[in-house]
Amino acid sequence: GNSVTQMEGPVTLSEEAFLTINCTYTATGYPSLFWYVQYPGEGLQLLLKATKADDKGSNKGFEATYRKETTSFHLEKGSVQVSDSAVYFCALSDRSNYQLIWGAGTKLIIKP
Amino acid sequence: EAGVVQSPRYKIIEKKQPVAFWCNPISGHNTLYWYLQNLGQGPELLIRYENEEAVDDSQLPKDRFSAERLKGVDSTLKIQPAELGDSAVYLCASRGSGDTQYFGPGTRLTVL
C-alpha cells in the first residue's frame, strides 16, 4: 500500500542555516506530493506541492522536487528563520480517491 | 477567498458530556473531510463527504461519533458521550476539483 516516511525530529538549527527534511514514499501509480506546515496552535497549511516527476514545488523560500527514481520529495530551504519553527508534514495523494497519506511529521526548531 | 472556517477553536468538557464541532468549507468545494490529530502525530481521517453523502466513514467510531452535512455545505461532527481519550484536535478540510486539501484551524478538545 501507499506510505510516506520522513525524517524524525526534532531538527534543531541555527538561524540562516541550510535546511533539509527528508521524505520518501511508496505508492502505486503516480501520486501528487505535498508538504504541509503546522505552526503551534494552528491548523495545517499547504506549503508546496508537485504533481508529476521532476516538478519542483516552491513557496516562501522552501523547495521540493518530485524525484520518481528515488521516490523522494525532500524539503529544502537555503536560510531558515526563527519564524520557520513549526512541524512539517510530507503527504501523498492517492489519485484514485484523493486520500492523503501522511508522514509522521518533523518538528523544526530554529534558534536565533 | 475565505478559507475553511471551524468553531469553536477550543472546547473543554467533562467526560460523558456531548460536544459538537462545526465546519464551513471553502465555497464551491464539494468534498469535505474530518480528521482527528493527536499531539505530535499526523492527521487521521474520520469521515469524507462528497456533497451531502458520506462516502468513507470506515474510521469513524460510530458508537459515539456522528456527523452530518446537510445541503452539502456546512458540516457538524458530534461526540456523545465524550471520553478522556477523545482529547485531540479535530480538523476539517475541503477539496475542490483538484487534489489539494485545505484545512481549517481546528478545534482543540479537552475532556476532563
Q: Can you tag this structure with a few keywords?
A:
heterodimer, A: six-stranded mixed beta sheet, B: mainly beta, seven-stranded mixed beta sheet, 0% helix
| Count of extended strands of chain A | 12
The SSE order of chain A reads: EEEEEEEEEEEE
Main sheet makeup of chain B: 7 strands, mixed
Tally of separate helices of chain A: 0
The parts of chain A where pLDDT drops under 50 for at least 5 residues are: none
Helix content of chain B: under 10%
Helix percentage range of chain A: under 10%
Question: Brief description of this entry?
Answer:
Chain A is mainly β and 112 residues long.
What can you tell me about this protein's structure?
- The complex is a heterodimer of chains A (112) and B (112).
- Chain A is an all-beta fold and 112 residues long.
- Helices cover 0% and strands 51% of the residues of chain A.
- In chain A, the strands form three sheets. In chain A, strands 2, 5, 6, 10, 11 and 12 form a six-stranded mixed beta sheet that branches. In chain A, strands 3-9-8-7 form a four-stranded antiparallel beta sheet, with no helix packed on it. In chain A, strands 1-4 form a two-stranded antiparallel sheet.
- Chain A is globular.
- The relative contact order of chain A is 0.34.
- The mean pLDDT of chain A is 94.
- Chain B is an all-beta fold.
- Chain B contains no helices and eleven strands.
- Chain B has strands at residues 5-7, 10-13, 19-24, 31-37, 44-50, 53-56, 65-68, 75-79, 88-95, 101-103, 107-111.
- In chain B, the strands form two sheets. In chain B, strands 2, 4, 5, 6, 9, 10 and 11 form a seven-stranded mixed beta sheet that branches. Chain B has a four-stranded antiparallel beta sheet with strand order 1-3-8-7, with no helix packed on it.
- Chain B is globular and about 40 Å long.
